[in-house]
Design brief:
Blueprint (H helix, E strand, L loop, with lengths): L1 H6 L14 H29 L25 H15 L5 H27 L7 H20 L9 H4 L32 H4 L5 H22 L7 H19 L1 E2 L2 E2 H5 L10 H19 L9 H17 L3 H7 L1 H20 L9 H7 L4 H21 L5
Antiparallel strand pairs: 1-2
Helix pairs in contact: 2-3, 2-11, 3-4, 3-11, 3-12, 4-5, 4-12, 5-8, 5-12, 8-12, 8-14, 9-11, 9-12, 9-16, 12-13, 13-14, 13-16
Length: about 400
């Protein structure tokens, strides 16, 4: 909104021409989000304390966490505010990719808010029933995928969706408004290989189910990771930073030069605008981390973790980096796998693989201090993000 308003004046003020560059607006969104979060969190934390929105701690969790009872929670709601407002101010709101990202973030945030509210009201770590929460996530992800791929009624029977060949190679370049071009819509991008030479076509129904899975899985993966002070937001910032580069490369032309074609990744016109959204996540995340670092003054809650995870999943689907997300978001994958392994092992053998799941609790019970676990997980996240970015060149 602010971008369109200011840029419309560039004829009178030539220096406003700088706003037509995505890189300028990425910086503006990042700084706006950072300043908003740093300025608003002290007031927000005091407000949460006044209305007694305190954290409910699991009785079966590590004993060191019992002292955290009563710490203000639902701090993620301000993260969402500091992501959505700067994105709306500095991005092209005629771009469907951006609109989709904001809708996914807001809608999943509502689900997280209701979950947190029920926990606080009942003074229990169990909030919204799992089946209801999962169903809401699936519906949101399905609607986002439908919107993203511009699926039309009857398209499930489109021969191009099911069979590769000449019909599927028709170039549909797309436009800057933001939908995935038809010629690459249902092709599966793989890291370390050239997209245009090797990406296989996948049946439309199967591919759409896969994209829904990616969004929902990462929404819950970030939620599982949010168990220590600063543990989840650190990798979220790192992952968003990596996707800032990936989306910019996939959708930006510089003086007519196609970065995506040069790097052998999918070129998706308009998806580069999502880099502004990524910048806003980074800025809001850093501002939140100032108050969430050990010992935390405020917790994120499901209202923050669920939409941030869904946002990362959406970024991966929109830019066709679903498998690269597994690398970049490896910490979230590890946390989720540790829970699955623990549950399966206990049900089949009656034995636990880890002292406690998710795996960050395992290291706590092994004697690692909370800050040590968090910082080491951050380091791993940075390494994985660098590996993920290396896939741009190693093809």
């Amino acid at each position: 909104m602010l971008y369109q308003l200011l840029y419309s004046l560039h004829a009178q003020f030539s220096w406003l021409n700088v706003l037509r560059y995505t890189s300028t607006r990425i910086l503006a969104a990042t700084l706006t989000a950072l300043l908003l979060s740093l300025l608003l969190y002290p007031w927000f934390i005091r407000t949460l304390q006044k209305i007694q929105l305190g954290q409910v701690v699991r009785d079966d969790g590590p004993e060191s966490h019992f002292s955290k009872r009563g710490t203000p929670t639902m701090g993620g709601s301000l993260i969402l505010f500091c992501v959505i407002i700067p994105t709306a101010l500095w991005s092209d709101m005629d771009n469907n990719f951006v609109v989709g990202a904001m809708l996914v973030t807001a809608a999943t945030g509502v689900v997280g808010f209701l979950d947190d509210a029920l926990k606080v009201r009942r003074k229990s770590s169990g909030g919204m029933p799992g089946k209801i929460k999962f169903t809401c996530q699936v519906v949101i992800a399905a609607m986002a995928t439908w919107f993203l791929f511009d699926v039309e009624p009857g398209a499930l029977f489109d021969s191009c969706s099911w069979y590769p060949g000449d019909m599927c190679s028709v170039v549909a370049a797309g436009d800057e408004s933001g939908t995935v071009p038809a010629n690459i819509r249902y092709r599966l991008a793989l890291p370390f290989v050239s997209f245009y030479k090797t990406a296989p076509y996948v049946p439309m129904g199967l591919y759409l189910a896969f994209t829904v899975f990616v969004i929902v899985a990462f929404s819950n993966a970030v939620n599982l990771t949010d168990g220590l002070d600063g543990l989840a937001i650190g990798p979220v910032i790192v992952s968003a930073g990596a996707f800032l580069v990936l989306t910019y490369a996939a959708g930006t032309l510089i003086a007519g030069f196609d970065i995506a074609r040069y790097l052998n990744i999918a070129h998706i016109p308009g998806v580069g605008e999502l880099a502004v959204y990524c910048g806003a996540i980074c800025g809001a995340g850093i501002g939140f981390l100032w108050y969430n670092t050990f010992p935390a003054s405020v917790f994120m809650g499901d209202v923050g973790s669920l939409p941030l995870g869904a946002g990362l999943g959406y970024l991966a689907v929109a830019s066709k980096n679903e498998f690269t997300l597994v690398i970049i978001g490896g910490i979230f994958v590890l946390e989720t796998v540790s829970v699955v392994v623990q549950v399966v092992s206990f049900k089949l053998t009656g034995k636990r693989v880890f002292k406690m799941a998710p795996i960050h609790h395992h290291f706590e019970l092994k004697g690692w201090s909370e800050p040590k676990v968090v910082v080491r997980f951050w380091i791993i996240s940075i390494i994985l993000a660098l590996i993920g970015l290396a896939t741009l060149k190693l093809r």
